């Protein structure tokens, strides 16, 4: 069983279905994640100054709590949380001074040895594309899906180590397993403007519009992402567009649930599996 770190944004936006859909997919395939008994906000942004240690503490607590609760690793759904947790983990493993300073604050030493998983990583490592393909009952043959990664999943390459930051293919492989056609577009790994949406709206607006228009140009019927902030920015940049010009922005879970038969079917089978066991 995995530990589960919800993070503030996903938990605050439960009505958008990302958390429910993610857990239904994992549970359907017999992969279970149990929320940590205690967790705090990771800070959302990784601290970039080398002598800044206090912002690391909440992530280290979550990583250590995962070990204490005997979980296989720590799962998160939010790419911002994933980015911070993964980089903090890397730093604890490789920066002796940071390890010493954080240990003096927390009164324990953490070795940087908890595996951090994002949802799409868990789909690959614990379920596999063949299983997704096998369980697909409603192939998405009419869909042309643009997979948008953004920047937080992928960079810096050495610290994140999930996918090739120049040519990631995991979401495309997931989409193909569902029977849909992944479409290539130039800005799949560009930043959407991130938190500039709340500080310098015009910057994020222009960047996000470029991403959406690029996906529309190659014939995408939807964009999928796994980042709440990316989803917000890509939707928000279209708010003044005519309805017929807008492109749906979905979490990667939406086409997966659709291809597997719908959320009610997934949760019904999960319930039956629990009774059988």
UniProtKB/TrEMBL annotation:
Alphabetically list the UniProt keywords.
Oxidoreductase
Q: Name one GO molecular function term.
A: oxidoreductase activity
Q: Where is the signal peptide?
A: none
Question: Which residue ranges does the record assign to the Cysteine-rich domain?
Answer: 3-86, 146-234
Q: What is this protein called?
A: Heterodisulfide reductase subunit B
Q: Which organism is it from?
A: Maledivibacter halophilus
